Amino acid sequence: MAAMTQTVMAVLVQVWNLVRVTLVVPLLRLAIFLSLATTVMILVEKVFAGIVSLVVKIFSLKPEKRYRWEPMRPDLETGNLAYPMVLIQIPMYNEKEVYKLSIGAACCLDWPSDRMIIQVLDDSTDLTVKDLVKLECENWKSKGVNITYEVRNNRQGYKAGALKEGMKHDYVQECDYVAIFDADFQPESDFLMRTIPFLVYNPDIALVQARWKFVNADECMMTRIQEMSLNYHFKIEQEAGSSTFAFFGFNGTAGVWRIKAIDNAGGWKDRTTVEDMDLAVRAGLEGWKFVYVGDVHVKSELPSTFKAYRNQQHRWSCGPANLLKKMAMEIMKNEKVSIWKKFHMLYSFFFLGKIVIQTATFIFYCVVIPVSVLVPEVEIPQWGVVYIPTLITVCIILGTPRVHF
Question: Might you give the EC number(s) for this enzyme (predicted)?
């Protein structure tokens, strides 16, 4: 019995050695080559974005210097008519904990009440929450705030469907711009005063995006790590995209759109889970410009549980890949934007920013490196395992110092 066992083990070892040499080693070497190549690509992209952000900071190239910007004031003859009509959309879904904060913040925006319409789009399935949200809207309406409470018969299209349905109401035709705030976002009172002028005085600008300010970043280690990652996204990535190509992905909230640009791009679509990015790409291909204003902050909350974080990351990871599949040919064939902007969209924005960073990093560190330990014929160079990842981390850390609000 023992001899038979030894024979079987010897055969298995021989088979493994054969498979390892003929199949595992070549595949692993190919995986290492691709992983190292993508790691270098990521480093180059991080350095480029960092340099752009540094130049913007050194030379104080704020959006107010690159675009025309003047404070909004009432006119002596027309009064508040000097202010454009603005629609505020607040999509909600069973937001029992934060609905008062978001509605209250929107109602307290420093803007003439007769030149602003607040639209609460409630898709809640919890009847108790719906009643509470409706009552809150009625309370503010009794105080003279122009606020409407809108519900649908179904949740088709989810957030994109709610925003699209909200744009169909007759009173929206009076509005030139729409500001969007998710239910857990609370803008500062001067939000419109600081963002709308970009749209008023620059007719080629479609979107003004503000920066998120995280009120629960110190809740746990997970929220702290998220804060660092998202701070880099805003401070470096979006600032670089805004400064070099006047394009970046809309974050779905804390931004103001020109309604004409939304219509020109085909409106809201629910074909992916990243409806905000979808709209931004389509508007960018129509030649519209985007502006990121990092000095304007909007309070928000980070997912503090693993389940909430996992759901968020799943949507952010799968949605862009699906959108790229749908729009890659459309981007390449587009004749309204420069070849450099199309390259930026396909390579930097989608391929590197949304796919490679998400998948290649996981495959390299969680699959390739552990498997290479079991295959002595394969060696990963030290610069690829230590030096380049360290440089990438340093770029992120230097670009996102801890900010205390």
Answer: 2.4.1.32
Which residues contact residue 241 at a Cβ distance below 8 angstroms, ignoring those fewer than 6 apart?
Answer: 247, 248, 290, 292, 344, 348, 349
- Cα–Cα dist 155/162, whole Å: 7
The question of whether 276 is a catalytic residue gets the answer yes
Pairing of strands 289-300, 186-187: antiparallel
CA distances from 404 to 216, 267, 401 (A): 12, 38, 10
Position 235 confidence tier, pLDDT thresholds 50, 70, 90:
confident
| Per-residue pLDDT reduced to its tens digit, 9-54 | 777 777 777 777 788 888 999 999 999 999 999 999 999 999 999 9
pLDDT of residue 318: 81
Are the C-beta atoms of residues 107 and 142 closer than 8 Å to each other?
no
Confidence class for position 405, pLDDT limits 50, 70, 90: very low
Tell me the C-alpha to C-alpha distance, in Å, between residue 174 and each of 113, 165, 314.
Answer: 14, 16, 38
Give the Å distances, CA to CA, from 269 to 162, 265, 352.
Answer: 11, 10, 24
DSSP letters for 155-223: -TTHHHHHHHHHTTSGGGGG-SEEEE--TT-EE-TTHHHHHHHHHHH-TTEEEEEEEEEETTTTSSHHH
Q: Which residues have a Cβ under 8 Å from the Cβ of 195 and sit 6 or more positions away?
A: 179, 208, 210, 256, 293, 296
Name which of 213, 181, 192, 194 is nearest 98 in CA terms.
181
Q: Pick the catalytic residue: 182, 184, 276, 278?
A: 276
What residues contact 30, with CB distance under 8 A and at least 6 apart? Answer: none
| Token pair listed for 311 | 């759901």
Do the beta carbons of residue 205 and residue 289 sit within 8 Å? yes
Residue 123 annotated as catalytic: yes
- Over the stretch 303-332, which tens digit does the pLDDT of each residue have? 888 888 888 777 777 889 899 999 999 999
Q: Hey, how many other C-beta atoms are within 10 angstroms of the C-beta on 357?
A: 18
Global pTM value: 0.90
* More confident call, 218 vs 178: 178
Instruction: Determine the average pLDDT of the residues in 122-140.
Output: 94
**Residue found under tokens 């690159």:** 66
Q: Which residues pair with 209 in a beta bridge?
A: 255, 292
